[in-house]
Fold this sequence. Notes:
Layout: E1 20-22, E2 32-33, E3 47-49, H1 55-58, E4 64-66, E5 74-77, H2 102-106, E6 109-113, E7 121-126, E8 132-133, E9 148-149, E10 152-153, H3 155-183, E11 187-188, E12 192-196, E13 199-203, E14 208-209, H4 211-215, H5 219-228, H6 230-240, H7 250-262
Antiparallel strand pairs: 1-7, 2-8, 3-5, 4-5, 6-7, 9-10, 11-14, 12-13
Amino acid sequence: MMLNDLPALTDGLPSLYREVIPLTPERHRGLALRTDAGYGFAGHSHTLPITVDEFAAVQRDYPILFTTGERPAPAALLGVDPQANPYVDGNGRWKDGAYVPAYVRRYPFLLIRHSRDSDNFVLCVDRTAPHVADMPTAAGANGANTLFDDKGATKLTEQIMQFCVGYEQGIERTRAFGDELKRLDLLVTPTIRLSKGGRSVDLNGFRAVSEERLAKLDDATLARLARSGALSAIHAHLFSMQTLGQLEHLGQSIEALSKRRAN
C-alpha cells in the first residue's frame, strides 16, 4: 500500500506537520527514509519548540522564550521575521555549528497516543515530508534506509522510535518545569527592542523569567529548584537572552520586517 492510499490526520497537528499517518510493517515495507532531505521544511519557522533537556545546548545559539498560553512552553527564537528562519539556507542546510533543535531532528516522525487517556503510542510520519518515499529505490545502498523488512521494523526504525520516546519523556519534564514557573509566578511579559543598522523592531507576545521575582524566592524554594535541576534551566534561559543581539542575519531580518510593516 502506498503512502497516499491511507487516510491522514490533519487537524490539531503540531507545527510543521501536515498529513500524519501511522506506520505499520504490513503497509509500509517499501517505505524508505532519505537522508539528504535537509531542513527546508523549517525554513519559514522563526520559533521552534524545545524541551528543558535542550536548554544547555540552545542557550549558546538562541534566546529561550516562553509562550503566553495557559501552560507556558519554551521555544527557541531563531529570528525576528515570522516568515523566515535565517539558520536554514536556500539549499535546506542548517548553519554549520549552530544547534539543531530536537523538534526539527524528530521530523517527519512523531508519536501519537492510541487514545486521550492511553499510555500507548504509535509511530507516525508526515506523508508530505520529502524525507520519505514509497519507492524502494530511495532506500539507498543495500536498502540501508528502509523502515521495514521481512522481519518487521529495521534497526533504523527502532532508533527513530527510541528518539521519539525520549522526546516525549522530555516533553513531560518540560511541562512540569513550565507548571513550576507558573506556580511560582516567575514569568513576565516584557517588550524588548532590537536595533540594527538604524532600524528597530519590538519583540513581544512572549514570556520570560523575572530576575527580580527569582531573587525574592526563599532559600527553601531555591534549594528545591536546584535539586530538581529547574534552577539550572532558569539560569540557562536567562543566559540565553544575551544572544538576542547575535541572531543570524539580524539586520536583514529587521529591515525586511520593517519594510513589510510599512507597506
